[in-house]
């Protein structure tokens, strides 16, 4: 069976399970005979990537020999952190498609020339997020990022509060920044993204499904539904 490896660059196994569940659910609804999704969690680093130091550690962690060996046995790889840490190093080591949830979701949000924003929980990564948008050549369409307040880890422990806080950030992207689509920026925010997709009339892009769509296209899987 075709296999996709989803790498969680932080150390939370609960986040890995959540992202794998989202990917499996999306693939089951999107394609016939969906590929199997297997998750792997970084062996070192932080339980949530909240600053540049965490991002640098995650970039090294995703190229640990054990993870690279698993990736080499797969048919495609998803890097499940919004900063896409270590993705170029992985691509250099592998002969299979590798996509990151950050680039995939941002490209999807900007498709058709849409003005897009990013709603997330990690203000200390604001410069990194903006830099990654520039690297993709999409800064002209970027309305900016809106961040929740308070400790990201504590917020993530209260799903209802996380969803409410992110909804406020999405509203700010729309009504204050003029965004026509909004990315929910982070793998650990996957469940909240699923819920927020149903609450707004404009596209709210969940990063894990966006990465699945991008990977299926890279794997030439055929027709992929939104």
From TrEMBL:
InterPro entries from the UniProt entry: Asp/Glu/hydantoin_racemase, Hydantoin_racemase-like, Iso_Racemase_Enz_sf
Membrane spanning residue stretches: none
One annotated GO molecular function: amino-acid racemase activity
Superkingdom per UniProt: Bacteria
Name of one Pfam family that matches: Asp_Glu_race
Family under the similarity heading: Belongs to the HyuE racemase family.
Designated name of the protein: Hydantoin racemase
């Amino acid at each position: 069976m075709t296999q996709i490896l989803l790498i969680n660059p932080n150390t939370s196994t609960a986040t890995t399970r959540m992202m794998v569940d989202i990917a499996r659910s999306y693939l089951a609804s999107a394609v016939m005979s969906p590929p199997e999704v297997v998750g792997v969690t970084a062996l070192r680093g932080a339980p949530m990537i909240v600053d540049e130091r965490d991002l640098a550690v995650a970039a090294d962690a995703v190229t640990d020999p054990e993870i690279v060996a698993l990736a080499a046995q797969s048919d495609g790889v998803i890097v499940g952190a919004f900063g896409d840490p270590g993705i170029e190093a992985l691509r250099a080591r592998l002969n299979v498609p590798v996509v990151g949830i950050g680039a995939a979701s941002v490209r999807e949000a900007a498709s058709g020339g849409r003005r897009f924003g990013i709603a997330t929980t990690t203000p200390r990564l604001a410069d990194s997020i903006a830099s990654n948008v520039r690297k993709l050549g999409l800064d002209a369409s970027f309305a900016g990022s809106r961040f929740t307040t308070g400790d990201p880890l504590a917020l993530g422990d209260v799903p209802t509060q996380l969803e409410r806080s992110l909804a406020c950030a999405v509203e700010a992207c729309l009504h204050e920044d003029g965004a026509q689509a909004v990315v929910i920026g982070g793998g650990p925010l996957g469940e909240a993204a699923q819920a927020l997709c149903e609450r707004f009339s404009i596209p709210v892009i969940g990063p894990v499904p966006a990465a699945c769509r991008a990977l299926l296209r890279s794997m030439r899987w055929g027709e992929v539904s939104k």
